[in-house]
Amino acid sequence: MTLTEQIVWGSIYLGICFIIEIIFLTWCTQVIRVMSLRLEQSKKFLTIAAPICISLVFIVTIHTFQVWLWAIVWVLGDVLPDWNSALYFSLVTFTTLGYGDIVLGEQLRIFGAFASVTGLLSFGLSTAFMVAVMTEVFKEELSA
């Protein structure tokens, strides 16, 4: 891939990952609202723990889905030979850990960096979401 193609395709996959994350976080917010209404009269433990647990389940699902999306790119693009290598490389890159035991060729380095940027931004967005959820949960509990 040329540099321009790497930037274009990397941006496309990054955009797809963020559309998925926004959809899932919006859905998570709706689930938490419905669940909070049902648990209004429940014990404090449930009203605090349930939104946090639901958020974590959604976030882990979102990140797992994104790692799989990048693994699909590596396998279907004949970049990596098998699913094991593709998932491993995808996870290590997405988490920005980058062991370096699997390295892309020069023609895909910039494209591969987009997987890392996707993970970095996804973790940031997920962290901000969790802070917002926990702030709301504790604000409601302190005012009750």
From TrEMBL:
Residues 66-135 form the Potassium channel domain. It comes from the Bacteria. Pfam families: Ion_trans_2 (PF07885). The chain crosses the membrane at residues 6-27, 48-73, 85-104, 111-134. Keywords: Membrane, Transmembrane, Transmembrane helix. This is Ion channel. It comes from Ruegeria meonggei.
